Amino acid sequence: MLLNILTYAHTLLKESLEEGDVAIDATCGNGNDTLFLSRTVGTAGKVYGFDIQAQAIQKTKEKLLENDCHNVSLILDSHEKIHSYMEETILGGAIFNLGYLPQSDKSIITKPHSTLAAIRIILEKLKTNGRLILVIYYGHPGGEAEKEAILSYTSELDQKEYQVLRYQFINQQNQAPFLIAIEKKKRS
Ligand SMILES: C[S@@+](CC[C@H](N)C(=O)[O-])C[C@H]1O[C@@H](n2cnc3c(N)ncnc32)[C@H](O)[C@@H]1O
């Protein structure tokens, strides 16, 4: 069976992350991706988790404690402020789950300007063969503009430096989410 978007996102990260790596969850939400990253990089690794909503940071904190994960710095701030919090220069991988927090205020959404600013910073720091995963939900007001901004930016990335993949089920109804994966290539 073909992997669903979220499972494929984790599969792509698992293939490229190593124990001891530094990783970023740029949109913690309920903490599912943060927990996944924390387990994947292990106790020798480090995860930075960002969200602009206190309830998301709290939920993520609880999930990590329940699972005995202590290698995460949770940051109540916007993801384009990475430089203010992350000391390490090399990043193993990162994920964004765009849109709004389910069962929450649907007007608090990720926005093109800050999402693109964070993507640029992450790509600079990404290790060779490291991956940045974007899970793009776009069925809500504001979602289409963010989707277009991301597609426009990522499709113009220099193919000598990055491979960019789009993974999408094209016969699903209701603007189902799709995935963009960016992998940094070895400099030749
Ligand atoms: C789709 S949810 C994330 C779901 C999450 N990955 C999970 O596993 O539950 C999107 C999250 O992005 C957060 N968000 C919106 N703008 C943000 C920003 N500029 N920086 C960081 N987080 C942001 C929202 O508060 C929301 O919690």
Automatic annotation (TrEMBL):
Biological process GO terms, please?
Answer: methylation
Q: Name one GO molecular function term.
A: methyltransferase activity
Q: Which UniProt keywords apply?
A: Methyltransferase, Transferase
Annotated protein name in UniProt: Class I SAM-dependent methyltransferase
Instruction: List where this protein forms a coiled coil.
Output: none
Which is one Pfam family of this protein? rRNA_methylase
Record carries keyword Methyltransferase = yes
Show the InterPro entries listed in the entry. Answer: MnmM_MeTrfase, SAM-dependent_MTases_sf
Task: Name the CDD domains on file.
Answer: AdoMet_MTases
Domain of life of the native organism:
Bacteria
